[in-house]
Amino acid sequence: MKIAMVGSGYVGLVSGACFADFGHDVVCIDKDERKIAALHDGVMPIYEPGLDNLVATNVEAGRLSFSTDLAEAIKGAQAIFIAVGTPSRRGDGHADLTFVHQVAREVGENLAGEAVIVTKSTVPVGTGDEVERIIRDTGTPHRFAVVSNPEFLREGAAIGDFKRPDRIVIGAEDEFGQEIMREVYRPLFLNESPILFTSRRTSELIKYAANAFLATKITFINEMADLCEKVGANVQDVSRGIGMDNRIGSKFLHAGPGYGGSCFPKDTLALLKTAEDFDSPTRIVEAVVKVNDSRKRAMGRKVLDALGGADAARGKKAALLGLTFKPNTDDMRDSPSIAIAQTLSDSGVKVAAFDPEGMEVAKPLMPDVAMHEDPYSAIKGADVVVIVTEWNEFRALDLGRVRELANEPVLVDLRNIYSADDVRARGFKYVSVGRL
């Protein structure tokens, strides 16, 4: 089957490469000529483990190609995926559907045969209806169906998530759409990956509901961590204790500096806007957004406290280890490190940082932060070392070397990756989250 993937960013490129690996003929389309030229040269626009090899293998096999010409690229495609960005709209937090609507119009104007148009982008409820209207208004004579097929890819583990999914959700309004999508996902169906067929609007809401629920779990355990610090409990044991309940589960119960990334912040805001539009308040999600926003700055204040308070911290140096919102990605969108660094800088603290993959993306977002080539050069002369992102290389730091290089032996572990007893036994002042 020929598949056209409109949008060659994170979702489009990963999805396109994986579909090609299944044996489909895939062309990834993007208007960014530099991005497409780079892909032709084997240069990935994002960091995702294993993606460069997956792309190279399928390009070499002739199953994956790249183009800036949508009209030509969609010819003969039975499935045309829309995988463009839907960022939060300024002012009201609603998903900006400008790119989705542009693609729908261009697809309709250039449709050369019957096809299923699939919204892979995360879109509010009712977007599929609008996409169908836009295509129909172009006057295309060809049979088409509009289907919703949300993605559930975790950055840093996207290829595995695509090939071994928990579920595949498909929102289709007719048999034609279902039939084509069955063929698209036939390799996974043979592997018994569960496929859930729903109405289009239900499918669109599933994506937002899933992300809002996971964001709620993260925010809940972060508030429990604050309570643990007040009452003398251990949040990691609390997490284990409640996570052993099958009704709750252990995932997304790790206390930290708050959620970030490309999905949770914008999707919770978009869900709130949808709920407002339909006069159906989502008070829990409202609270989640507010708590998470305030938490990031609170983590900056936690570092200031470790330096002796805001007044004493002025003129001191903090070394931030990890800048991306999670490991194994270069994604800096809404990363807690941004608010933490800003809080420290606002208090007169000099900030140095190291991240294995995110520093080029971080530089324009953190103009006052000195970027370093390795963790130890960032730590040199620091009055506090802060673990912000749990990259594997930070889990086994040479603490003896850290103590020699740092001005003061103070470690603030915002991801709880170290044993408090072990670190304190080496002469450090150790501060973690939800633990004494």
Give a brief rundown of this model.
The protein has helices at 10-21, 33-40, 51-60, 70-73, 98-110, 127-137, 158-163, 175-184, 186-190, 200-231, 235-243, 264-277, 283-306, 310-313, 336-346, 359-362, 375-379, 399-405, 420-425, and strands at 2-6, 25-29, 64-67, 79-82, 115-119, 144-148, 168-171, 195-198, 317-321, 350-354, 370-371, 384-387, 410-413, 429-431.
**What are the low-pLDDT stretches, counting only 5+ consecutive residues below 50?**
none
Strand order of the largest sheet: 3-2-1-4-5-6
Morphology call: elongated
SSE class: alpha/beta
Name of the CATH homologous superfamily of the largest domain: NAD(P)-binding Rossmann-like Domain
Q: What is the CATH third-level topology name of the largest domain?
A: Rossmann fold
Task: Give helix % range.
Answer: 40-55%
Specify the number of helices: 19
Total individual domains: 2
- Main sheet? 6 strands, parallel
Radius of gyration: 23 Å
The average pLDDT score comes to 96
List the helices and strands and how they pair.
Layout: E1 2-6, H1 10-21, E2 25-29, H2 33-40, H3 51-60, E3 64-67, H4 70-73, E4 79-82, H5 98-110, E5 115-119, H6 127-137, E6 144-148, H7 158-163, E7 168-171, H8 175-184, H9 186-190, E8 195-198, H10 200-231, H11 235-243, H12 264-277, H13 283-306, H14 310-313, E9 317-321, H15 336-346, E10 350-354, H16 359-362, E11 370-371, H17 375-379, E12 384-387, H18 399-405, E13 410-413, H19 420-425, E14 429-431
Parallel strand pairs: 1-2, 1-4, 2-3, 4-5, 5-6, 7-8, 9-10, 9-12, 10-11, 12-13, 13-14
